[in-house]
Design goal:
alpha/beta; binds adenosine-5'-diphosphate; binds 6-O-phosphono-beta-D-fructofuranose
Length: 322
């Protein structure tokens, strides 16, 4: 293999740049030519290909976002779109492709490899941590850190006003950001889609806290359950006397420098993806399991069902009792 490509696709996440950095520099080190494809599958269809040099990826390892830009591209789901994508790769002599993205992007990678014979390797880049085959995805640690820092700031004002705040976090249908950030910020209640929304349990917790004079509470809600505004309204209906606010943290969860963990994961996964291509492997996705970097068959990986860590959920519930 002489020429490989790399693209970032779907929702951006911190650590994508660290992975791009590693794919480029490790790839060059291995004697490969490395091409960046701009704006995910859209750029692949449109032929937006750039030969990347060592200098081009200088000083990006820490940066959020992605220097390759990203996009959501429905046309990639059609045969027409897929053929355009394959043409770009063939025209440029690119034999192997590293796709950095979430489960949707991996579906695209699966099609390219299984239907068109392109050697593809996936790197899980999404803040949602919603891929079952890997313990962690790139960006999850940084996004959860944004959430815990936000909760810490909220605490200052909620505490001195004796207020409760309902905070909505991202994650699509996955509750991991809410769970891990809730556990590590001492949220008084955590609501995740995998467990469900129990307004009575939340109100019981707030009432028992109020009975002992604790009026500041953080209720962390995963967006896959319902909106913070809805939870706020439901609480207010049952506790009309409560002083309560709501906050949607939103896209800042995808912003800021990548954490140490995401940089480390990015460079380890990026270099492993290049190793896979050099070894002639294809249809693989890179992950981390029990602290070791792994590669696994893409079809097998995507067939696994993501589950929430219920032990961690129970622990958070126990630790946050007042
Ligand atoms: P993420 O990769 O973060 O999960 P999306 O679900 O939006 O984000 O997927 C990103 C892109 O992957 C889509 O815009 C589309 O180009 C491609 N994609 C998603 N699903 C498929 C599919 N079934 N077949 C081919 N390409 C797909
Ligand atoms: O998949 C990452 C993610 O940030 C989700 O947590 C969120 O639901 C979605 O993307 C937001 O998408 P957009 O950036 O298109 O608003």
């Amino acid at each position: 293999m002489k020429k490989i490509g790399v693209l970032t696709s779907g929702g951006d996440s911190q650590g994508m740049n660290a992975a791009v950095y590693a794919v480029v520099r490790y790839g060059l080190e291995k004697g490969l030519e490395v091409y960046g494809i701009h704006s995910g599958y859209q750029g692949l269809m449109d032929g937006k290909v750039e030969k990347l040099s060592l200098n081009r990826v200088e000083n990006i390892i820490h940066r959020g976002g992605t220097i390759l830009q990203t996009a959501r591209c429905p046309e990639m789901k059609t045969e027409d779109g897929q053929k355009k994508a394959v043409n770009t790769l063939n025209r440029n002599g690119i034999e192997g492709l590293v796709v950095i993205g979430g489960d949707g992007s991996f579906q695209g990678a699966k099609v390219l490899s299984t239907k068109y014979g392109i050697k593809t390797i996936g790197i899980p880049g999404t803040i949602d941590n919603d891929l079952a085959y890997t313990d962690f995805t790139l960006g999850f640690d940084s996004a959860a850190t944004v959430v815990i820092n936000t909760v810490q700031m909220l605490r200052d004002t909620m505490t001195c006003n004796g207020r409760t705040c309902v905070v909505e976090v991202m994650g699509r249908r996955c509750g991991d950001i809410a769970l891990y950030a809730g556990l590590t910020s001492g949220a008084e209640a955590i609501v995740v889609p995998e467990v469900g929304y129990d307004i009575d349990a939340i109100v019981a917790r707030l009432q028992s806290n109020a009975a002992v004079g604790k009026l500041d509470n953080i209720v962390l809600v995963a967006e896959g359950v319902c909106s913070a505004e809805q939870v706020c309204a439901d609480i207010k209906l049952r506790m009309p006397q409560i002083s309560i606010r709501s906050l949607v943290i939103g896209h800042v969860q995808r912003g800021g420098n990548a954490s140490f963990q995401d940089r480390l994961l990015g460079v380890k996964m990026g270099s492993r993806a290049v190793d896979c291509l050099v070894e002639g492997k294809t249809d693989r996705v890179i992950g981390i399991r029990d602290n070791a970097i792994i590669d696994e068959d893409i079809v097998e990986a995507l067939s696994k069902q993501k589950r929430i860590d219920l032990n961690l959920y129970e622990l958070a519930n126990k630790l946050s009792k007042y």
